[in-house]
Structures are given as C-alpha cells and as structure tokens.
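Blackboard transcription, Thursday session:
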Amino acid sequence: MINIAVSSQKGGVGKTTVSINLAHAFARAGVRTLLVDADPQGSVGLSLTRQSRLLAGFYDFLKDPSTPLERLIVPTRLETFALVASGQASDYEAGGGIGAHLSRVRDFLHAVAGRGYDLCIMDTAAGLFGVTGDVVSSSDAIMILQQAEPLGIRSVPKLLEGLNRMRVMNPRLSILGVCLTMVQHDLIESTEAAAALRQLLPPEMVFQTQIPRNPLFVRASARGLPIGAMEEGAAVQAVFDRLRVEIEDKLQPGDARRV
Amino acid sequence: MELIDPWLDTAEVRRLAELLMKPSRHPVGALPEAGFEAGFLGYTTTEPAVVAEESQAATPAPAEETVTQADPEPLPSAARSPFLDIIHHFRDWMREHFSAKEMFILDRQGEVIYDESHHGRLHFLARSLALAPRRPGSFAGYVHIKIRAGATLEVIPVEPPNGYLILGAVVPGALSPAAVTAVMEAMILVAGAQTPVRPIGQPV
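(Written on the board underneath:)
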C-alpha cells in the first residue's frame, strides 16, 4: 500500500474536493482506495455521507487505538472505494507539536495496510503541524495544493521550508508536487498566478494538470457525490483522471508500492 | 512574474524547491538515529537511556571545552570551568522558569557541548531540524516535539555573532512564543559567556 497526504499551506484551497475526486478516480480505475478524513473539520464525511455526524472515524482511533478499523470504514457503492470519516473525537488534542500522535497515526496506517488497500489518501488540515505533521511524517508521499491566486503564490517559500523540515522528520517522503487549484481562466490574476508558479518552481514539481474552479463541484457537494458519479461530470472527471495518471507516473517505475 | 518578483527571492525559492525534488539522500533504514524512519513508532513509550556521545572534537566559540555529562549532578570542582558554570546557571534558570528536566546543547556540526538529557539519539534529529534548508537571512525556527506523555522536546536554535547553538530541552508542555524568545535571549548570553540575568524576559 502507498499512502499519500493531500496538504496545503493555506486553508480553503480545495483539499477536500481534490481528495474526494482523486480518490474516486483511483477507485474507478480499479485501485482499492481508502479516503481518510484527517481534517478535524470533517469535510469529507460532510460531503459524502449524511451520517457523518454519527460516524466514528480517524480521530476516534487516535483517541482510542483499540477501536477496530472495521468500525471506522464506510463502504460506498463503488466496491473499490471506501472512506473513513473524521469522527466524533475530532477535538481530541488536535493541536500540539509534531510527534504527539505519530505512534497512533502509524498504527492506523498499519491497520489500513493490513486490510488490503492499494492506496490510502489522507485529506489533512491546512499547515504542516499538529496531526497534519504526524500524518505527513508517516506518509510515503505528499501532494500539495496551491490556489491560483497571488497571495497563495507568495506563501510558497514558507511552504518549501515546511516541506524541507518534513523531509528531516521523514527522509523517505516523496514530494509528488504542487497542484494548482481553483484556476479561473476568465480572471487574468488567476492565470498569471498559475503561470508565475510554473516559472518559479522546477517543472517536475508542478503538476501539469490543474483543477479549475467549476460550479459542478458545488452541485456535487450538494448531492453528496464525487464529480464522476454525476451525469454531467464527465469533463471534470477527466481532469482527475489525468491527475491520477500523473501521480502514477511520478511514483517510481518498478516500485513495489506503485499503485 | 511581476505578481511575485517583488515579494520573494525567486532564486532562493528555486533552490529550496530543487532540494526537495532531489531523491532522498537517506534511503529508508539509513538513519537509525533519525527518530522518524520506518521502524520508529513514536515517543509514547519510555525512551531508553542512551549514553551521550563522547566528543573530543574542537567546539565552536565560545566554549573552550566539550562537556558531556550524563549525570545532572555538578561536576567535581576540579573539572569546573567558568563556561560550565555559566551553562549550569542557564540550566538552573531553565529548570526554575520552565520546569525543564533535561537539556542538551549542540553546535552547528552536531557536536555535543553539553548533555544531561539521556536523549543522545535525538541529537541528530535536533540538528537536522535546526539546519533544515531555508531562505538565507531567515531564522531557523524552533520546533516542539512531544516525546512522551507530559514531555515535549523543544529544539531552539540560536545564531549569536560568534557561533551557532542548538538547544534541546525537555519540558512538560510546548513553550509559548514569548517563552521561546526569553530562552533565545538567555542562550545568546550564554554564547557570549555571560550568566543569564534573572529574569530574562518574562516566561509565560
């Protein structure tokens, strides 16, 4: 199994939207995928299941590692796609420095690997500290989302410093790259910001695929569905399929962990 | 690039990014003391006592001697020196103001200047964190790492004019920013071979 943390320096860049639809893209391609909501806000659960307020989840495991994984896994209509909600204990010591939950995060991932999943995608809270720091310190790879707007681009140095520090914590961490989100082709500041990021960073560090701002995301969220499960969602789903292929290509060829 | 050029040093950003995209210099398992490699499951259990590294190497200014002290008891008077006295004053100050139970001080090369922590295996981690690539001129930030229940390792680097010191201190809980500032000020006095004046700052 390989586990990928989806993270960002700033909040509100579309982590949950990307995590849900990327996980769904992998699952549609036959990859046994578990999507874990590691953001205490619980947005994955709120997006995909009406029972999210009742579900035990990731933070319940952190609070009590004896919680059986079976109690946390929520199946979906797609056999290869399941999710773990944030849970009811999401206020459980969510702060704190890196290392506070490391042991339990790793226990959780070992338990997930033992269930035969090929891929675990973890939607994290913004920033690289607290539980997110422990998730990244336990992950095989990290994908960073960056909103295509000038302020976000200016925060890139801080993001890179944070990632370099994460690399110290977790020397095997693979940086999949930065994915631009909420790109607005009809807004020059947005397209210029996207172009500036591509000039700023090495080409291999920026995904070719970028996620557009699209009202379909709002509609999908309203219906509690991934984009790919909506009749009119094919074009946007194709974006996530391209992103999936890019990620597969970035994982080292021949790597046994390749999904 | 007008959107970002005036706001950041693009060459430095590029350098940091290229460092990240290099394959890891440390394959899995190559860093037995890094603390966070694959076999490591966190600090929730009691840390095994590790004998601190002996070091005969030259140490940076202003220390004239390298002191490795696994036992927090004062050294015999014959072994004492003015600098060691200053460090002991600093240690006492850390205990009094922040309830620090264990402490080590490293130089830029990771050589031990002082150690009464029993956390020798954390030296590599502390140094690596303190020296993680960053923008020139930007300060190496401090880091809190919870190592077990009721014990947080504070890694606090300081850059006095005459050297570079990395403090590792085990405290009951993460220090506030104001407290870290006070510790940094005290560390700079230590680096200048001055006894911390009590109180330095107002610990929170």
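Lecturer's comment: Residues 45-191 of chain B form a domain with the Beta-Lactamase fold (CATH 3.30.450.30).
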